[in-house]
Design brief:
By secondary structure, the chain is of the alpha+beta class. The protein has five helices and twelve strands. A hairpin with a 5-residue loop joins strand 6 and strand 7.
Length: 187
Amino acid sequence: MVRRFGRGHFLVLTALFLCLQGCAQKVQVTYVSQQKRVIGGERPVLSQQNVLLLKRHYEKWRGTPYEDGGLSRLGIDCSGYTVLVYRDLFGLSLPRTAWEQAESGREVSRTALKTGDLVFFNTGRSKKHVGIYLDGDQFIHASLSKGVTLSSLDDSYWSEKYWKAIRLQSSNVQNQTNNVVTATYRR
């Protein structure tokens, strides 16, 4: 009997491989299946009260270098940063990639942005970039050139690349207790 391995199995096997390599920091990665990300009633995940909380988290990660696929202070990518922010601050799971995150909520206009909304950018032919809207046209993200940083949506580069914003909805963001696959590894 031939058994096919799905994405969840791949993550578990990858996590096991990295665990056996024995690195330093422990990081948890969660894969949320497409079926678990059904659009439901809107409930903003964050409120204005969390601006300070997001800024404190940013200060801890500021300057962490960009690393494609990274999920630690040694290196992190944009979607990895959003995954860790929501996990660490709010105990919530986001899909791992910017593409998946872009489909995880309801699109909102740039003029209606609220703290905690995800902002997306077209940074290449098929590349997407994601950050977390803070306030005052500021967003936090893992930049290729600066690492984890705070940028302005009004900056000419980001303004030109702006794609859309997503407001997370209660049924799209999974509580850690309802995870489909949880893989822990050392990085």
